[in-house]
Amino acid sequence: MKLRSPIGASLVAACALLHCVSLTSIRTVVADDESQTHETAKADSVVNIWPKDPPTWNAPTDPEVDQTKPNGGRVADRYVIRLGNVATPQLHVYPAEGSKTTVIICPGGGFSILAWDLEGTEIASWLQSNGISAAVLKYRVPTGKEDKKWLPPAQDMQRSVSLVRSGAIESLPTEHIGVLGFSAGGHTVVRGTLETERLYEAQDEHDQASLRPDFAALIYPAYLTKERNSVEMDEELKVTKDTPPFFFAHAFDDPLTPMGSVGLFAKLKAQNIPSSLHIFSTGGHGFGGRDTGAEKDAWLPLLKSFLSDRGF
Is residue 228 within 8 Å of residue 259, measured between CB atoms? Predict the structure, then answer.
């Protein structure tokens, strides 16, 4: 992987070290239950997104670690890496040969952890195998001590879009850049995409590139309504004629109401922004992209068709 200036050689060396640390930190080892281990795909490279420290926040003091317990909840009868104490935001890069589109993926985790493989690396691998470049954003968590839990993750998302769009990561295409988020990562995508201003002070010339993605995909996005089961949308979420197209996938029986997806889709429709909404009759919350033979498994092929239809 080549990283273009002005990030420079020192950051390349740092990223190489961070790559080793990152791979170690997410390696899944569960004592006395080897069957729970689920191997994640290896990124082509890992890039530290900030040139120095990220914007000020209440960073964790404990080391980054997989917080899933031996009896932790499985999805599709497979282990899930729940990565916590993330203080160094990174992009884990999955380039696809001949691709003209990069999708930046924001895993969910309630702003407490990141569902790293289920909603991150597994999705990046699927996109890569389908000819679409991807990068999994390891954004800052936990953010429970922040006045706005979504702000540090949204800052990391906006910075990632500008970094990729500026051409700083040579292996990733810059022609089309989209963002894809699950649950709290979906909320991150909404905040970072609908906000017309940069949520942090510009750091370098990479921040001269646009922070607005060309499209956004929300998979069971969380916290978009006023209350957990409300039909009223958060009034801070403003859609304008310049908002990019959105793709939605949500389950009818999600305890985090699908009305957030429905309500945001209605706002997009009112502005005549071509978008795609899919509400599956079952699926609950947190199903990721793991195939179980259920109706909700259709969302990944539907997303690919959406991108193709929109010219991405």
Answer: no
C-beta of residue 46 within 8 angstroms of C-beta of residue 89: no
Letter for the amino acid at 171?
S
- Write down the pTM of the prediction: 0.89
List C-alpha distances in Å: 292 to 108, 204, 297.
20, 45, 7
Distant-in-sequence, close-in-space partners of 174: CB < 8 Å, separation ≥ 6: 102, 164, 165, 166, 167
Q: Which residues pair with 46 in a beta bridge?
A: 92
**What is the tally of helices (H) and strands (E) in the chain?**
6, 11
Q: Which domains does the chain have, with CATH numbers?
A: 8-309 (3.40.50.1820)
Strand 82-84 and strand 65-66: pairing?
antiparallel
Residues contacting residue 16 through CB under 8 Å, at least 6 positions apart: none
pLDDT in tens, 52-84: 999 999 999 999 999 998 888 899 999 999 999
